[in-house]
Specification:
alpha/beta; seven-stranded mixed sheet; six-stranded parallel sheet; 12 helices; elongated; binds MU-OXO-diiron
Length: 397
Amino acid sequence: MNSIEVAPGVSWVGAVDASLEEFHGFTTEHGTTYNAYLVHDTKTALIDSVKAAFSEQLLGTLEKLKVRPNYLICNHAEPDHAGSLGELALRYPEATVVCSKKCAPVLKRQFDTSNWKIQEVSTGDRISLGQRSLEFIETPMVHWPESMFSYIPEEQLLFSMDAFGQHLATAQRFDEDLEWQLLYQEAKSYYANIIMPLGKFVAKTLKQVETYPVKTIAPSHGVIWRKHINEMISAYKDWCICRPKAKVLVLFDTMWGSTEIMAEALAAGVTDENVDVKLLNLRHQTLTDVATEVIDSACVALGSASLNGGPMPMLAAALSYLKGLKPTPRQGIVFGSYGWDKACAKYLQSCFESMQWKEVSEPILSRYNPDPDTLEKCRTTGQILAAQATQVAKTSN
Ligand code: FEO
C-alpha cells in the first residue's frame, strides 16, 4: 500500500515510476512519480490520479484504506495524471469528477464520460469536505489550457500539479529529506524542458499563488515542498523570465575534432575571465541537458562542422528543440569547421535570427583543421563573450 501522511487528513497515494526513461522528449534519467493525494474528512476527495499503467496500484491502495472517494479532482487532463480516471470513475460511479470548464471537454475526448457526474469549477469556487474544504485556482497553460491548482485553506496546502514538480523517482516524499542542490537541479531541468515556453503564464500564476498562505506545496511529480518553498518560488521567478547568469554555454557537435578544438579554445577564453562556462558536446549530452543549461546562460556559442549544407544532426535537433522552448533571447556567436561549403554557418545564423538572438561578432570559421590564428581568435572571442555575459547578468538583476 502506498500511503504517506502529508498533513492532518491528507495522504500521498501516488506511484513511483523508477523505470521511466523518456517523457515527451525529456530524458528522465531519474524516473518520476505520479503524485495523487487523498483528503480524508466527512467526505473524501482524491486529488489527481496516476498514469494508466499504475491504475491497479492506486485502486488497491484505496481498497486497503477502505476509502470510496466522494470527489475525483482532476487538476490536469494530461494522461500522466488523469490516466486512471476512467478506471476510477468505473469503480466509484457515485463520485463526482471535479474539473475546470476547459477540462471537461478534454476529458470527453479521452474517456466515455456519458455516465460521469462532472462538476465544473472556476477560480475561487469551494467544496466543503467537512472540517476541510477545497478551493480551486485556474492556471491556464500551466501546463495545459485546462489546468488548475487545488488548495486546502485549513491546512494551507497547495496542490500545484505540474508546477514545482521534478522528474525524480525517490522513496523520499518531502524536500527536507533530500539535498537542496539535487532538488534545485531536478526542478530546474523539469522547468526548462516542460514549462519554459509558458513563462508569462507562470509569472501570472506566481502572482496568484502569493495571495494564498502556503505551508506545503504538493506537486504532481517528485517531492513535496515544505522546507524550501521560498527558495523554489524565487527560482521560478528567475526561470519564468529565463534570467541570465554570468555564464557562457558552448554547444557543439564535431565531425573529425576540429570544431571540438575550437569549442575548447572558446571555453578557455571564458575561463580566462573567471566566468562560468559550460561546454556541451552534443554527441554525449541530451537535449534535456541543453535546455537546462540554456535557461540561465547569458551567452551561447553554437558550433558545428558543416555536413551536407547544414549542421551536424544533433545540433540541428537541439536548435529545433530550443526554438519550441522559446528561451528569452540570448547573445552569442556561431563557429565551426568546413571543407568546401560554408552553408552551415548561414544556417546557424538564421537560427539566431529566428530566435531573435544577437550575434556579438562574425562567425569564426575554419577550413578543415583550425590553425593557431583561428584558435587564438576563438580564445579572444571567449573572453569577449565572458565580458558580455557578465554585463548582461548585471543588467538583468
Ligand atoms: Fe505531468 Fe502536464 O503532466
